[in-house]
Structures are given as C-alpha cells and as structure tokens.
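Now for a chain:

_____
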Amino acid sequence: MSTMYVDNIVEKTSTNGVHIPGHVIQVAFGEYHTASTAAFNNATFAPMTTAQATITPKFSSSKILVHCNGTASGVGTSMEYSWHLKRGSSWIGGNSAGKSGNTHASGSTGTGTTTGNENVATLSFHYLDSPATTNATTYILGFQGGETATYYINRGTTSAWAGNYNFYNTGGCTITLMEIAQ
C-alpha cells in the first residue's frame, strides 16, 4: 500500500473544480429567527416559508444533502403541524401520504390547557436530493399547521409572548445545503 502526502490539491483546469466522489464540494446556509405567527386552514396546504438557501451545483451529477431544523408551537392541545422541503417551485421528498403530502417531520403541540404556551419543539430532518442541474437552486423550509388555528414560529423572549414563555431563546429555523460529489 502506498501513502501520498500533499499540502494542497489544486484543480488542473480553472473553474472545473476538484471532483472526488463522496466529498463535500461546497456548503450553503440559511436561517430564519424572526418570531412569527401564521394562521392556517386545515383544508388548505399552503406552508409558510421560513429558512431558505441557494446553491449552484458545480456538477449536474452531484447530490445535495439538505439538513433542516424548524421551531414551532401553538396555543392549545394536540395541534398538529409539519415541516416540508421545497426545491424551486416544487415540494419534494418526504412522506407523500395524507392531504399535505411531502412531509419530512411532523409534531404536535403536546398536552396542557387550551391557553398553554409551553408547547414549543424544534424538529429536524435530512434529505438527499438529486437536482441534476448546475443552475442556482433554492431550497425552502416550509411550515404547515394541521389545524384551523394560529401557530407560532421561533417564539422567544423578545416577542410579544415573552411573559408567557419560559425559555430565553428558541432553536430557530435553519437549512444547510451540502453539494456531494458523485
């Protein structure tokens, strides 16, 4: 077996990039930390845009590994919600069963009284996408309430609900995109 020691790997042809299958070529990141409310109708699928990021793949054969975190809550018990992923103008991946479709993560506001305010949760998911393009591609983390009600995204102590909220900060909403060479 041979060992090769190097200090740098430099592309041979300018702007071609170095292509090593399985390695990360580039990373893009987006975040959304605004304390927001969103009203939903349980008969309509219309997710709220939270974090988003754009990546321009170097190779059309690359995969994009997407990591998402979303923080949400609601006032009341058993108020269902879900997180979705959009590439361009299409909702992609996830569980396609149910009326909302393409669900990557789902949760509930938990138990308590109908006036409870401590039902916040940060949910995470990962998705491996094959966009087959070298054009700039935007990915969006979408939040969908499952009840006809108002939900809260990134509820924190700087919001109007500070008196009812016992945590100093929330997890926020983030999206990380990694181009993986194939």
User: Anything to note?
Assistant: Residues 24-180 form a domain with the Jelly Rolls fold (CATH 2.60.120.1340). The radius of gyration is 20 Å.
